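Task: sequence design from structure.
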């Protein structure tokens, strides 16, 4: 999604551009309070002044002057240089006369240069000034004038806001709506500002804390420390420092309403769902009698039913709530309004509202309202909690069980009761793969009495502490603890799987794991294989010893590929693929597939790895996320990028960004950012630098996840696209890169090319010689063949026949389209240097065609320039220029040459004149001519 900042900047640029061209004279920015209207108008002023063609007159309507006739107009005229324009309250002029006076004053300024007239907080205009503006504004729509107005929503019928929107939509205006930001927009804003995508739940928390206010969220972002920003990729929760203005802008209507109308709004907003009208009436009557509720200032002296009707009408009129289902139910005006009201209601009053809602609700909702309305634990409530959580889990609704248990914890300080609740909560989160959400309870878990279950849950939560080393020895102690209890043996079985998974993330993980395999296999063999043998239902899902054993078997291949043992990979893969194929379709099957695909990517089996990960992603869509849910996305995208499937790769990366916040393999966030940077460089989307900033910590980490060196590859690709070989050398200069245990060392090929680009032939020759020895084991030709490098080296040494032969060998490899297209471009330059322009032209055309087919637009301009040079050398410039035109542009050019004007061309081709103007502009640029007559001459030459 586009960043809100980028969206607003584009809207401002469009308004100024249209005003400069005489197509727009009114720009309206509207939205609720606190959404950044004033800041947006301020940016418009900055941009206008930077153009050096606009003179700015900025005014603000004052709330405390709303009752003073012509108060705003006096401010406006003062900004136009008429400081003596003061209106006598005893002898007020007619608004039309004042409007005409303003128009004359404005015109006098326009005569000396273009004017930007900014009117902020227009909702506070006094009545007389509003009448003047309504008369004058349509008459201000003239060349050299842009009126920019900021005004608060909502707009009532016939209000000034409605008038402004109608005027702006008449063809000479632009409108920018600045609504409360959504979580998706907050994520985009963070990405734009920090080059980091924060978790969606963090974005939702920000929206709730600020009411979606652009200014509020910007303020929270500004309070992040540099260290916090550097760690955003690796945290589960974004720090939210709540020293915000307590008056959320979305509660303005709620605060202005009387107490009775506020009560109706509170009942609807705190209900959590749409409320049937009759149920709302019943809850309102009950709430009005609760000691925690005071409705005296707004409750009419009538029967209860009449009081509720009046209060409901007031709440609707205030815009706190809206009708849904043709009036059958009531809902908050906006989800963020509901959040804002919930935060604004005092604790005691909120509890009373929940007590009233509990009396008219049933099932899970009734228990939740009872918990929120209760002040202390009681046994009946305890039984309701037990029943509600059990029922929620049986229905497959763990989030409902988690909500109830969290609320229950708020009601009890009893250590035994809290221990039971926390244990259940942690077990539910473990199954849901969301232990990050209960890290706040780790201290209490650690303090519980010693047991295998306690230790397991503590270790499970510690697996999510990404800045701390996983306590492997403590986990081994759990595995080695003697027990005959089926529940504890089930826990040990899962613990063995978890330990194997966490061990692989360490630098020497495979070597540590291999001696551990007999131990964990023995644990799997002793574990129950039937859930009926396990007493605690919350452990039943762990009873999968066969699948756990298969995952660990597949993990053993990691040691093989990290040792660059390609024959060992080829020997082990068939058995492990067969083992995995025989497993039932569960998330653990996906965990098996991941190391196998990794092994294929380390043994020149990219197509097979892509297909295996396509199977894994299909499984994830049907049976749920595995424990390492990030890896299948990244392996698949890695293969797709190598194979030139850039469109599909971006789609998968976007999907990954929507699920990454729940992943245990949190380091994949950084690898994903590196792949986005790589993709952005190749496709020319212009976002590579931002994504690269978010990957810097990956190469510093001890974790050895797949793609550990992807940020280096991405930096090299960005440097190659930019034609900056020095940057490529800088990115690959660290000797520590060679010690990485999980690298295909593709960056070494980029380094060799950079050395050749800089004429450092001897150094390039030494590196190419090393790559020859690593080829097919420690270095793979995914990013360019050894023959390509040898061709360029021979070319640099003047060995023309050797270079020609090496280019021919390099181009026989067709699996990886981008390096092949770039090899063709280098071959074309080589052939042109020999004077073989025909073959050079063929090679560069094939290169351009391949780059266009795979959408590697980052290289199109560079290779296109090479083609122009080759064609210029061959003397066929006119034909080159003509070949740059698209088919539609050729049609338009022929009609221009035939003497047709734009209207006639539009009729001939059944398109708009604006489309014709667009094509004509492109034709003039590509043919490097300035007039339509020169187009005819260029066509004649070709």
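Answer:
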């Amino acid at each position: 999604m586009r960043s809100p900042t980028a969206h607003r900047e584009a809207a401002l640029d469009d308004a100024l551009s249209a005003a400069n061209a005489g197509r727009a004279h009114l720009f309206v920015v509207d939205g609720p309070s606190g959404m950044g209207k004033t800041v947006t108008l301020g940016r418009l002023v900055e941009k206008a002044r930077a153009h050096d063609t606009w003179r700015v007159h900025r005014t603000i309507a004052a709330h405390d002057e709303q009752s003073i006739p012509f108060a705003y107009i006096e401010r406006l005229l003062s900004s136009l240089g008429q400081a003596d324009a003061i209106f006598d309250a005893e002898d007020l002029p007619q608004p039309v006369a004042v409007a005409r006076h303003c128009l004359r004053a404005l015109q006098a300024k326009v005569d000396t240069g273009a004017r930007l007239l900014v009117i902020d907080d227009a909702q506070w205009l006094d009545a007389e000034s509003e009448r003047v503006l309504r008369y004058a504004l349509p008459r201000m729509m003239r060349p050299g004038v842009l009126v920019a107005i900021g005004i608060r929503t909502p707009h009532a019928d016939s209000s000034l806001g409605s008038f402004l929107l109608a005027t702006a939509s008449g063809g000479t205006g632009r409108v920018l709506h600045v609504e409360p930001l959504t979580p998706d927009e907050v994520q985009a804003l963070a990405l734009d500002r920090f080059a980091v995508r924060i978790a969606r739940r963090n974005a939702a928390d920000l929206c709730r804390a600020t009411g979606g206010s652009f200014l509020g969220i910007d303020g929270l972002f500004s309070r992040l420390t540099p260290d916090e920003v550097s760690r955003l990729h690796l945290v589960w929760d974004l720090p939210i420092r709540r020293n915000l203005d307590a008056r959320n802008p979305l509660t303005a209507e709620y605060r202005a309403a009387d107490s009775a109308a506020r009560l109706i709004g509170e009942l609807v907003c705190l209900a959590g769902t749409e409320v049937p009208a009759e149920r709302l009436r019943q809850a309102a009557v009950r709430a009005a009698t609760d000691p925690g509720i005071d409705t005296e200032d707004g409750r009419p002296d009538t029967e209860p039913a009449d009081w509720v009707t009046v209060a409901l009408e007031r709440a609707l009129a205030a815009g706190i709530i809206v009708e849904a289902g043709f009036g059958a139910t009531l809902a908050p005006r906006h989800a963020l309004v509901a959040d804002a009201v919930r935060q604004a209601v005092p604790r005691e009053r909120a509890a009373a509202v929940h007590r009233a809602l509990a009396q008219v609700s049933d099932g899970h909702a009734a228990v939740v309202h009872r918990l929120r309305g209760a002040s202390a634990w009681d046994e009946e409530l305890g039984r309701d909690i037990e029943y509600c959580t059990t029922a929620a889990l049986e229905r497959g609704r763990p989030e409902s069980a988690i909500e109830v248990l969290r609320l229950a914890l708020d009601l009890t300080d009893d250590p035994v009761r809290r221990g039971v609740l926390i244990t259940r909560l942690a077990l539910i989160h473990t199954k849901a793969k969301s232990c990050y959400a209960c890290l706040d309870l780790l201290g209490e878990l650690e303090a519980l009495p010693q047991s295998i279950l306690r230790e397991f849950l503590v270790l499970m939560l510690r697996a999510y502490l990404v800045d701390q080393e996983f306590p492997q020895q403590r986990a081994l102690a759990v595995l080695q603890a003697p027990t005959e209890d089926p529940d504890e043996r089930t826990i040990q079985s899962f613990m063995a799987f978890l330990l194997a998974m966490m061990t692989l993330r360490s630098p020497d993980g495979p070597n540590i794991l291999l001696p551990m395999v007999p131990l964990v296999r023995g644990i799997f063999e002793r574990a129950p294989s039937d859930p009926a043998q396990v007493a605690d239902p919350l452990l039943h899902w762990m009873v999968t010893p066969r699948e756990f054993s298969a995952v660990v078997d597949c993990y053993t291949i990691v040691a093989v590929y990290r040792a660059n043992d390609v024959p060992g990979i080829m020997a082990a893969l068939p058995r492990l693929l067969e083992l995995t194929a025989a497993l039932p379709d569960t998330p653990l099957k996906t965990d098996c597939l991941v190391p196998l695909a990794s092994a294929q990517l380390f043994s020149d089996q990219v197509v097979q790895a892509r297909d295996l990960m396509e199977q894994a992603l299909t499984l994830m869509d049907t049976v749920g996320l595995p424990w390492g849910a990030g890896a299948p996305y990244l392996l698949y995208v890695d293969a797709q990028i190598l194979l030139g499937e850039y469109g599909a790769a971006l789609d998968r990366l976007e999907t990954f960004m929507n699920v990454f916040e729940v992943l245990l393999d949190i380091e994949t966030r950084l690898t994903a950012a590196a792949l986005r940077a790589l993709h952005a460089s190749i496709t020319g989307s212009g976002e590579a630098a931002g994504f690269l900033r978010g990957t810097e910590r990956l190469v510093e980490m001890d974790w050895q996840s797949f793609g550990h060196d992807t940020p280096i590859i991405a930096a090299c690709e960005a440097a190659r696209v930019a034609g900056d070989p020095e940057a490529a050398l800088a990115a690959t200069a660290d000797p520590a890169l060679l010690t990485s245990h999980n690298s295909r060392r593709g960056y070494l090929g980029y380094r060799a090319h950079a050395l050749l680009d800089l004429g450092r032939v001897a150094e390039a020759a030494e590196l190419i010689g090393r790559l020859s020895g690593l080829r097919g084991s420690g270095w793979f030709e995914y990013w360019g063949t050894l023959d390509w490098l040898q061709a360029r080296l021979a070319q640099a040494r003047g060995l023309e026949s050797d270079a020609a032969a090496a280019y021919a060998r390099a181009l026989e490899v067709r699996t990886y389209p981008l390096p092949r297209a770039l090899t063709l471009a280098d071959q074309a330059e080589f052939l042109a240097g020999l004077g073989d322009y025909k073959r050079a032209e063929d090679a560069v055309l094939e290169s351009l065609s391949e780059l266009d087919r795979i959408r590697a637009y980052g290289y199109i301009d560079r290779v296109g320039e090479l083609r122009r040079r080759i064609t210029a050398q061959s003397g066929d410039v006119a034909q080159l220029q003509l070949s740059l035109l698209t088919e539609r542009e050729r049609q338009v050019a022929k009609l221009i040459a035939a003497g047709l004007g734009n209207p006639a061309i539009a009729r001939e081709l059944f398109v708009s004149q604006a489309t014709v103007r667009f094509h004509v502009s492109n034709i003039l640029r590509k043919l490097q001519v300035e007039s339509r007559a020169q187009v005819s001459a260029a066509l004649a030459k070709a």
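The longest helix spans residues 486-503.
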